[in-house]
Every structure is written in C-alpha cells, then in structure tokens.
Amino acid sequence: MRKIQYAFATVLFLFGAMLVAQEEGTKKEPGHYNQSKFKQLYEEFATPNTYRSASGAPGPDYYQQQADYVMDIRLDDKNAKIYGEETITYTNNSPDDLEYLWVQLDQNVRAKDSKAPLRNGGGVPLADQPAAFAGKYLTTPFDGGFNIDYVKDASGRSLPYTINFTMMRVDIPKPLKSGEKISFSIKWNYNVPDHTVNRARSGFEYFPKDGNRAYVIAQFFPRMAVYSDIEGWQNHQFWGNGEFALPFGDYEVNITVPADHVLDGTGVLQNRKEVFSKEMIKRYEQAKKSYDKPVLIVTQEEAEAAEKGFSEKTKTWKLKAKNVRDFGFATSRKFIWDMQAVKLGSGDVMAVSMYPKEGNPLWEEYSTKAVAHTLKSYSSHTFDYPYPKAISVHAKNQGMEYPMICWNYGRPNENGSYSDQVKYGMISVIVHEVGHNFFPMIVNSDERQWGWMDEGLDTFMQYIAEQEFGEAYPEAIAPNKAYPSRRGAPAKIVPYMSGDQTTIAPIMSNPENVYQLGPNAYGKPATALNILRETVMGRELFDHAFKTYSQRWKFKHPTPEDFFRTMEDASAVDLDWYWRGWFYTTDYVDIGVKGIKKYYVSDKPNKEMRAYMAARNLTEADLRPLVYLAEEGGEDADPNLKGKSPSENSRTLKEFMMDNMTAAERAAVKEPKYFYEVTYDKPGGLPMPLIVEYTYADGTVKNITYPAEIWRKNDDEVKIVLASTSELTGITVDPKLETADIDTTNNSWPKEEQQNNFDKFKENIKGK
Ligand SMILES: [Zn+2]
C-alpha cells in the first residue's frame, strides 16, 4: 500500500506543478478569484455577546420580558363589535430601566384615517375581486380602529398615553426598574371587520342563507410590544405584511358570547361544566381516548339546528393559557366540532377542528387528521408539542396562526363536491398553520422584522410533513404518487429565482419591502433548507442541527444569526457561503458541463511542460521519472499510443510497477486506459456542490458530488481530470434536479437535443 501511495503522490505532485504553471501562465482579472463568496460573514453578522453566544445559543445574560394578561371580552354579535377590559402585568427582566411602555394596537391598521392604504403606489391593477374593488373605490372606509376608553394604573389612576398609528406609548410615573413588575389596565372596543371582504387576518364571515356569522378573532386586544437586546422596543408599525413580535406570558381570558354559540381558543377551558351540555362532556371524554379518529363533540345536525337559534342570552367561556405569546379564539352557532387524542413522547395532546357545514364533507374527513399528523411530524423534527391542544378552524380564504389555534381555507362547492386542488390546498394550509405553533409561536422569532424566520422554517417543515402525510395516508392521495407539495422541491423555485431581478429581493429583507413575498419569505428559504438538508449537509447532520436550534430557542426569541450559527455549530459544516449566497443575495444556480478533452499517458513532456522546463533550465533527464498526459489529437499527440493502457505506453509507469510492486500487487492495480479533462462552468452566481453522473461504455454509472468549495478559487469554471478503465460516454450535471439549477440545457454532454415546444406540437399533430 505504501508504495502505491508513493507513486500516486509523485503523480499528484506533478499535476499540482502543472496547475501552478497554468495559473501563472493565464493571469486573471482582479475579482475573478472567488474568495468573497466563501468569506466568513463577520461583517454581516452582529457581534456575539453575553446575550447571544457565538455558538448560536442563548448567552449567559440572555433575558426576555414577560407580559401576563387577565381579560374580560364581550362579543356583540348583532353589531359585530368587541368590547374588552384587560389588566397587563409586565415584568422587566432586562438590565435596563424603562421610562415608558409600548403597546400594540394592530386594529388601527383599519382605522378610518389609517395611512396603510395610502402607502402603495403602483397604478391600476390588472384586476380586482369585486368586494375589494368596492372597498377601494365605491364605499366609505370601514372604521375598524381601536377606541380606547381608558388606560389606568393598578390603583385606578389614569395613565397618560400617546397613540402613533398602531403603537401606543403608555407613560408611567417613574421608570420601571430592571427586575420590577407593573400592572395596568386598558378598556377598549372595536368594530369587527368582515374578513372575506378586506382580507383581514381576523374577523367574521357572514352567511346570508341563515343570517349567522362565524368569527375568527385575533389581534383583538392591546398587546405588549417586545423589548429585547436586539431592538430595544420593537415598535415598528404594523402595516399589514410584517407580522407580529410578541413576548411570552400567561393568559386568563373570559369571553362572553351568545348562549347558543360554541367557542374554542388558546388555552385550557376552565368551566367546561358550565358551557358544555352533558352529552358534549360525554363525547369529550370519549375523544380523549380516541387516538385513531376524531369524535364529534357537536354534530352537523346539531350545528344546523343551532343556526336557527339567535339566543338573547349569553354564556362566558373561561380559558387559561401558560407561556403563550398571543391569544386567539373562534366562535359561532354554526360550528361543527370534533376532537381526537394524539400520543406524543411527552404525553397526550388534543387535535381539534371547528367548521361550519359549508366545510363538509371535506373537513370532517381531513382536518383533524391533518392536525394530528402535523403535531407528530413536527414534534419528531424539533421538540414535543408542549401545549395541550391544537385547533384548526375553517374560515373562508384564511390561513392564519395563533398559539393552539389557526384559521384555514378549503371549501367544497355548494353541492359538497371538491377538486383535488381544494383538498390538497386545505390539507397543506392546515399543516402549515398548525406548524406555525412551532415557528414562531414557540420558537418566537421577530416576524415584524424577518418574515422568513417563521414562514421559511415553517414552509420547510411543512414540506417534510406533507411528504410524510402522503406516506402515512396513501389512500388520501393519488395511487403511487408523492404528496403534491406546492413549495419545497428545488425545481419549484426556479421560475422565481430565474425571474426579473428588479422584482427579487434577498431573503434577508423586511417583509414590508419586497415584491413577491410568497417566494421571498416562504418558497425560497424553504427550498434553501431542503437543499441544505438533502444535498449539502445530508439528513443526519442537518436534522441534528435543526433540532438543536429548535430546542435552544423554544420559548425564546432567536435572531437570524442564532439560526445560522447553530446550524454550523452543531454540524461542523462551514455554511457561511451558503447563507451568503442564498439568504443575502438574489443570485441563482446555473452550473453546466462546458467541454471535454481526451488524454493518453505519454513519457514526452507536452508543450506547457516544455515551456515550464525551459523557464527553469531543466532537462528531461533532470526530472525523470515522469508521467505526462498528452491531449488526443493535440500537437504533442503520438497516434500510435491512442487508447493504449498506461503500462503499455508509459515506460516510466511500467518500470515503476515492475521495480516496486509484486505480481499480486500489480494485478490489483486498476489500470486506467482513458484520461479526460472535463470543464464545468457556472453561469449562475451561487456556488453549489457540483453533482455529476458519469456514464461509461461498459454500462457503469458513477455519481460524484464535488463539494461547493470546488468553486472557491475560480467562480467561472473548473477543470476535473478523470481516469477510467472504460470509455466515458455521458456526463449529466445535477441529474436528479437537486439544486434548483435554472437552466438545464447546459447540464449534459454530449449535449442532449432539446425539443422545443413547436417541434413537440408538430409531432403531436403528426401523431393524430
Ligand atoms: Zn405562514
């Protein structure tokens, strides 16, 4: 073994010398060498500190604020209005003294005088939904802002406050010192919007046939802003796209609704006996033991009967939630309600669905099934779902998430029929919104600043959960097909990444400021993580690192750096080039095979080597024994040697083997007959692993993945030398379409004839 190594080392040394000679011979322009794409992200990243460690974990001084709420809420169903009173207890765990507090008034985005509709230029749209058209041009603006009745301290004295659009500064008599708590109360009301008209994230849908409303309610109360080591107060306005930044806390919420409504929301119901009938309690006890299918708590028949009630009486539903960052609820007479138990490592969780009859038969079939599957799938990749339940509520055109509860679209036609598209859309949105419990409800990133940290991570996990859903419920999807995920597979992001650069922003952008938020914050980061998992890191390293991030930051507030650093820290894979390319630029992937040259072994120096020797006054005798590769058909070629094995035509190699190796050792050496130099080029800006499938005349297929670092010294092209015992007949770059390569016409040698659409069309005509 040692001797052979020596022989290869000699040859390697010589190739190395020739490479240096070539590089010296062809001086490149400045910037050609690609170190910047592999440069560490020291300038882009915040400096690690005692709050956030360089490893990506929370540092020794990491802190977060706590906001606890006690609320009484009343829904006026007749006038679609919500009245509320809350007491917030705010704990200052930061090292800073706070002179004032910032409270979020999200509904003010719909105030009559809101600036939100005025900030969008852009001219006449291609088309509008009729309701949106009416809202924009024909009707007086909806008055949906908060009316604040008072802000008072614990002893009932008024606290001065200033409202700036969606943010309210509450001035406190003396600074809230580090480690101190303060309690204060707010009373308010607002008009609930019809969410089907103005695309609100929360509101009601009105059903004209029976005169009922179904409410999905969130952002309905003044909520504390986040104060952190990153932003101080995160009081960027809520303009509509940048979602929410919220501290954790405990909630005690009493919600009064018409007596014939049912209601579910964030937290554990405290007064089940007061609000459930005896029959409902019996069914609920059954559901807690039903692990394979949901049990109806309210049947469709019962819900249809309730639709006709319009009770004048009220009922109060009391909910308590621990360690959540927000609160949402859904209520209506129209809701059918089902539940089942889900077994997780840490205990049982209830998977719950609420839907009007308009959602059936789709919802009774798939909603709770999808909730249960999501909890299992996400838990296995992150941490066990820590809350007692997860509810999926059907709301027209909605897809919105809150702790333990979310709203989801997917409505059959009136006769109950539905297309595959509606079915898959519904399952996918449920997986996505239930999945948001993990990102950002528990791994509590700042959505106002970074859309991708929750949407991208969630969409990535959604892709995995959907594929697993297809495997778990093959009867639910087309036979022998994978689940048709809309996002996540590399090829799906190609149209976006290869599109008009003036409408593409890096992933590391604020969600308010980008065109195409869907692919920017959902599709591209999800695909980037999927490629990272499958192609760059491998599942084992990726999954461990991703789980480490999830566990380090559950019930905490991570930043992008915390994610990027943890993924490296837990895997020993340098990923700065990957984050830099995929997250900080709008570059795309395009790698191709440019050309191929054939060589044979020669003992005569070729032209470049002769120049190298001449420059150093060396003769062949000075250098022996040496092996050279001469290009077939090139000016140094000896036609007699073409296609011969190295030991047949290379005196030096043959002599070396005879002198240094036993007959058995010589027999074990695989003697290459063919030598090739393949040039790969990279028209795309993103460096990526070079994935190649080589096919040989004897039928062998060899797959080699060269690491992305192959591009580190030359961003344009690289040359690879191959030795083989059989003739090379084909090369395919990225044969399984793993990298989101935007142009595959340059991915093969010999170049495959690409049929254009017109040719295909002609062929089709002929066939008919
Ligand atoms: Zn989402």
Span of the ends, CA to CA: 65 Å
Got a strand count? 31
| Class derived from helix and strand content | alpha+beta
**Largest sheet descriptor:** 7 strands, mixed
Average pLDDT reading: 91
* Strand content range: 25-35%
Radius of gyration: 33 Å
Shape field: elongated
Number of helices: 21
Bound molecules: zinc ion
Helix content range: 25-40%
Task: Give start-end ranges of low-pLDDT stretches.
Answer: 1-33
Which strand order do you get reading across the main beta sheet? 4-7-2-1-13-17-15
Walk me through what this model shows.
- With 768 residues, the chain is of the alpha+beta class.
- The strands form seven sheets. A seven-stranded mixed β-sheet has the order 4-7-2-1-13-17-15. A six-stranded mixed β-sheet has the order 16-19-20-21-23-22, sandwiched between helices.
- Helix 8 packs across helix 10 and helix 13 crosses helix 14.
- It is elongated and about 105 Å long.
- The two termini are 65 Å apart.
- The site of zinc ion has 4 residues, from helix 10.
